[in-house]
Amino acid sequence: MSVAVTIASLTIPVSPISPHALVEDVGEYFLAPENEQLLSLPVVDDGRPVGVISRYQMMNVFLKRYGRELHGRKEIATLMNRNPVLIPVDQSMEDASRYVTGNMRFPITEDFVIVRDGRYAGVGVVMDLLKAMEQQLSSRSQQLARAYRELKSSQSHLVQSEKMASLGQMVAGVAHEINTPLGYVRNNVELFLERQRLQAATLDGYTLLLHMMESADSSEAGIALQLDEVRQLHADLGGGDETESLLDDTLYGIGQIADLVSSLKDFSRVDQAMSDDIDINDCLETTLKIAHNTLKHRVQVVKKYGVLPALRCMPSKLNQVFLNLITNAAQAIEQQGTILLRTYVENARAHIVVEDNGKGMPPEVMAKVFDPFFTTKPVGQGTGLGLAIAYQIIQEHGGDIRVASRVGQGTRFVVRLPLPGASDDALAVAS
Amino acid sequence: MSKPTLLFVDDEERILRSLTPMFRADYRVLSTTDPSRALAWLRDDKVHVIVSDQRMPTMLGAELLRQAREISPATMRLLLTGYSDLEAAMAAVNDGEIYRYVSKPWNMQELRQTVGQAAQIGLRLAEAYQYVTTTPAAQPINILVIEGDDAGAGNTIRDIVGQGCDMECKLHWAHNLEQAMELLMQKDIGVVITDLHINDQDASATVKALKRYRPHVVTVVVTRFRDNNTLIDLINQGQIYRFLPKPISRGLLSRSVQSAMQHHRLLRDSPQIAARHAVEPVAETPQRRLPAQLSGFINRLRGGLSQANG
């Protein structure tokens, strides 16, 4: 759809009348079919508009008793409005409409005159202008609605990609974590198989030896040969049998793998719905297992969990928030450091504190941490949405999240969530 | 002859307990969870092969292997890791100069074979390194830079290497793989510096074939391409000497070229040492046949080898 941008498209090329034209002649002009739709006629002298004469004005004259006789032979200049609304032909629709509505007298009895470089170019009808404006507005609002839809879908896209990015990182971390127990579990089983084959061969050797010894037609030499064979097999088997300890290790490793897998499952609990009886301390523990890969050997985690009542919340979403806070804290610690996790109840709210002694942030960074797309990481390493989404999730839970930080000393995030009794209103709003 | 000595280092004791019985019959096996203990062994004992984990609380595997290289250059170095981050693999090449990168979980037979090969090489190296003499440069080393025309102007590999070349080296430039192969056949090239993508051609198969048939040629890869599996293959099948990320760091590249020339001199003067760069054969499947151009190159490399031997 093309929208007229300037007033040029509304120009009607009306033949103007001269200021010397007689009033009664002008009356005839108004009756001409091509002028039927016009409220007024332009009066032009030497190419320049000098006024307009409206049908309304003409009627005022003609309706008076003897009006036609009194005024009919006068020049139109004596009756016309000498201050017509003039609009340059290249003016934008918006500006023209603003000017026309500001300067036109009501009721609308006149059209406006369109000029090019001060010279007469045609006539514009106010109704046409308003219609065009309305059309433009409705197309604008359609565009806006489309832009809004696109923005919304790209936002949910981004939220999704942030989720996938952190999920991917987490899964990669845990997968690697699994490789170590998987390494020795597999090797032990292969070792065991190998030993099992040797043992079976040794046992077969003994069976044959026994058979030969019991059989009457075995030669001494044959038995001696088999005895050597069996001795050799037994020697190959080796003395120190550590099969049992290897199998113990294998079971331990399988337990470790099972633990990691179940923490992955806990973490990403597919049910996104609200659950009633969630222990936030459990959530923190699950998240710590997931983040273990980022933390181990480098970050000491100090836990000061208080007793919290069961909360009504979406655990998978809260886990996402906690993982984000813990990962950020770990990243703020450049070499070795400590993360303090603290939970307690105060003012009918559960408080969850994630505090690190890392490099901290200057106030100008801290002011923006919850802004979408704000990131201090290099391009491609962070979407800048992690904390913005965390903020949103905590809000959905009727809680709030705050940050305090000092450069060189560390950063503290405090999440506050309403307790069940106090939270009905907030939760109603959230759901 | 006494059994070769293997040294395993991993912070998970169960890994060590699992590896030990696998090798005890044929090797003397040392194992520890403590990298500094491992360094002490390298200093005081004769170790033919060291196999280290990457992530350990007190020291990263790549760092341990770097120190091992200084303390006991003849020892063969392997990394055994469950983590596949590119940074670690890069450090393992550039600092550790490792023989193999093995991923956890491993296949027992394959690991036994890999470690066995390393031990055989390690035994021979222990002797070879006793007679290492570094002769002063008799003639300049031919350096081949393979760099596409798309490298742009300024700060290209050939600019940086060219500026560093004085009496010690002579620079050749190939701007596509055909030209590179031609130069490799004609000139006695000692050091190759290449990107992985030369005008949309993949150079890695060429790099691998070259090391297989010309073990004394030392390869430095400079690339924007960041893929861990590609790098692991370049270590195991191509024994590349350095892997440098783009954008190019002038200092890093110059230092790498210097030490690559030194390494080439060592391999040229003591050909037995080149055995430490024995490569894993590249699996060839019907789906992934070599392009005609490359198999022609390999045939010529082979021909050159039999001529040299005969």
If you had to describe this structure to a student in words, what would you say it looks like?
- The complex is a heterodimer of chains A (431) and B (310).
- By secondary structure, chain A is α+β, with helices and mostly antiparallel strands.
- Helix content of chain A is 52%, strand content 17%.
- Chain A has a 5-stranded mixed β-sheet. In chain A, strands 3-4-5 form a 3-stranded mixed β-sheet. Chain A has a two-stranded antiparallel ribbon with strand order 1-2.
- In chain A, strand 9 and strand 10 form a beta hairpin.
- Chain B is an alpha/beta fold and 310 residues long.
- Chain B has 2 domains: 5-131, Rossmann fold, CATH 3.40.50; 141-303, Response regulator (Rossmann fold, 3-Layer(aba) Sandwich), CATH 3.40.50.
- Chain B is 45% helix and 18% strand.
- In chain B, the strands form 3 sheets. Chain B has a 5-stranded parallel β-sheet with strand order 2-1-3-4-5, with helices on both faces.
Summarize the structure.
The complex is a heterodimer of chains A (431) and B (310). Chain A has 431 residues and is an alpha+beta fold. Helices cover 52% and strands 17% of the residues of chain A.
Structural class of chain B: alpha/beta
Kindly report the spatial arrangement of strands forming the biggest sheet of chain B.
2-1-3-4-5
Instruction: Count the DSSP helices of chain B.
Output: 11
The total strand number of chain A stands at 12
Percent of residues of chain B in helical segments?
Answer: 40-55%
Mean pLDDT metric of chain B: 87
Oligomer: heterodimer
Described by the principal axes of the CA atoms, the overall outline of chain A is: elongated
Instruction: Report the C-alpha radius of gyration of chain A, rounded.
Output: 45 Å
Strand content of chain B: 15-25%
Largest sheet of chain A: 5 strands, mixed
Proportion of residues in extended strands of chain A? 15-25%
CATH homologous superfamily heading of the largest domain in chain B: Response regulator
Cα-atom radius of gyration of chain B: 19 Å
Distance between the termini of chain B: 31 Å
The CATH topology of the largest domain in chain B: Rossmann fold
How many strands appear in the DSSP assignment of chain B? 12
Rounded to the nearest angstrom, the distance between the terminal CA atoms of chain A is: 41 Å
Structural class of the helix and strand makeup of chain A?
A: alpha+beta
